[in-house]
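Lab notes, practical 5.
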Amino acid sequence: MMSNPILMDISRLLSRAGSAVPTGIDRVELEYALYLSRNFPARVTFVAYHPLGRIGVLPRRPTTWFLRMLARAWTNGTRPWRGASLMAGLLLQAAAAGTVGETARRRLYLLLSHHHLMKRDVIAGFMDRANAGLAVMVHDLIPIDYPEYARPTEPDRHRQRMDTVGQLADSVIVPSQAVADSLRHYLAPGGRCPPIGVVHHGCHVDPISTIPVSGLAPDVPYFVVLGTIEPRKNHLLLLNIWRHMATGRDRSRLPHLVVIGRRGWENENILDMMERCPALQGVVHEYATLSDVVVADLVRGARALLFPSFAEGFGLPLLEALSMGTPCLCSDLPVFREIAGDLPCYLDPLDGPGWQRRILDLAGEDTRENGETPVFADWPAQVAAGLAMIDGAVHADAAVAVRPMDVEARTAC
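Output from the prediction step:
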């Protein structure tokens, strides 16, 4: 564990206090915050960015209460109690006034989301006042590498974030080698790249549910797709496959598709198909806010998890489904092969006939008992690996020329 005092930024969690379902980045930031607050409470101080343009210290006890409240609500799949939003507002006000005391001991400013990473001058000013180095987690460069899947303003904002990383960061954690390669390629023209450590995310699987889900799980073979409904996730491929399978077939023998995820952006075609296509009614089921326990039960009961994304920085649903023994059909992406090896069935995300053949094969035969359930590293182990990677970078020369990876923390996942 790190010897340096840690200033961990939880700005994203404060901004998400009213959300019933966390995103993947929300989960990552919360896991690191909970790990540090439970295991090293004397070494971590939580901070947050205030819209007035400053980063300030948060009071310890209310912050701990807030983190536990958020974790409990997201696990249960309920919108956080109104007090969570009120407490987030109070903590944000505290950030406007909370100051970092002077110290001769070097601190570490830990920023695990992209929340305000574009505010380079604000971050630099805070680092000077706090006598702190900067450790950042970069989740992906998808808005830069694949701008067609992002909101129109997001590519420029993400370039600003990555420029901050290149100019200010002392170390960087990334969840996959694919992201490391992309980040190094982006930073190369600037001539400065901090040490980059590859630390896979942890895998968390809830125990078998005692909550009845008979009202949600179809009573026929079904498949699950899990993730925000946006073009990059390629829901349209699956909806067209289901429409094609429904044509001229006995609907009573048709497998069902369960779509789990909040509605994102630029998804009008996807929503129109789910809501208005007659062939999909009654066989495609959409759920936006479900508890982790219920999601786990639905995934466990599925013939397979379907993951036809065009691009990903990691892929938590893939690991969690595999850890439950649920087969996975996924896009043939380098990041998926990196984190899951030969466990899934890989398909081209544009190969509709290939996906349909595999879906029909699995609908007719449950293959879950044909192999052992793999075991992946859990969140505490991966958080510890991430912090150890940062520790190694802090005690080495921080800024280096662009070259092959200087720090690599590969923990099997």
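Observations recorded by the TA: The first helix runs from residue 11 to 15. The chain has a mean pLDDT of 89.
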